[in-house]
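Comment thread on ticket #2218

A.B. wrote:
> Attaching the input chain for the structure job we discussed in standup.
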Amino acid sequence: MSLVPALLAQTAPDSAGWHAHTVWGALFYTALFAMAGVVLAILGYRIFDYFTPGDLSKEIFENKNVAAGLIGAALILGTCILVAAAMG
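C.D. wrote:
> Ran it. Output below, let me know if you need it in another format.
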């Protein structure tokens, strides 16, 4: 039974981790992760567009297809939720 308290014990803060120690460090990490999230959301959209028949961007912008726009929006939101969960 001595394993349970050892698993629940808090460890000392790691000085070389991802935790910001200053406001500027926190702002830097926020900007870094925001840019990574935007890049991954765009990459997810492009990968989905590549593997599906037709051109999703053309359907949305040139043909004004509302259903394709909803698919694109759902794809980007889903990718953003996954990226946020992975980073959090």
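A.B. wrote:
> Thanks. Noting for the ticket: Residues 35 and 56 are 24 Å apart (CA to CA).
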